[in-house]
Amino acid sequence: MRHGRSSRRRDPTTRSSRPRSSRADRRAVKGAIAAGHPLTAEAGARILADGGNAVDACLGAAFVSWVAESTLTGPGGGGFLLVHRAREGRSRLLDFFVSVPGAGVEAEPISEMEAIDIDFDDSSTQAFGIGVSSVATPGVVAGLETAHRAYGRVPWATLFDPAIAVAREGVVITPQQAYLLAILDVILRHTDHGRAIYGPDGERLEAGDRLTMNDLASTMEILAEGGAEAFYDGVLAERISSCIRAGGGPLTRDDLRGYRVIWRRPITADFLGQRFVSNPPPSTGGVLI
Question: Would you say residue 140 lies in a domain?
């Protein structure tokens, strides 16, 4: 999610990639990938060119975005996925937004979030709450696996290959990423873990520097092999909940174990001879548009 002026600027690194099929592959490949970083777009385009469908491409690109666009997304977040099947003339929406944590800890004291004000520009300031108590129950891993089970063609583990490689080899910071790293620096480097990733030499990463995320690569290897179960009821669930609870946060193993993806019927509206399909309530974005 982009805030303030950054949401209205065109990221100079954003591009659409159209996959190219070889002469040996006679299948007609049609599609376009739009993303916030070239590596994200290229991952999706390559999956399409290799025979994957639109959902496969979306998932592979999403995994790469955890690295290439790490200030905006990651396995600890949530989201929505709108899928249209042209042959059936049917659209469905997966709701895997984050949920409120705290199952079984109602009577226990919870640490306070730390308030941080971020100035996106001279006229746009946003207040953030950070710390372990700001962590909600993540939904993105469950949501993407649900989408893959329903629509995927390429093996689940294969979709992680580009992202794991990018995480270990590193991403060169673009000017737009450097802008986000600068304005979010007080959040990103608030903890020792954050400083190790976003300032390994004691200084904030700048445009042209390389960002590597070896721990995230290891996490993705676990997800590739064990799927969402590893995240919600396995080794990763234990690590996540233990870390949050040790710091006084509310997220528990029960929160992770109990998370569920919701299938929703999208809202539709006719406009200028076209049908608009978007996210339904309780999300407000589609209704506002």
Answer: yes
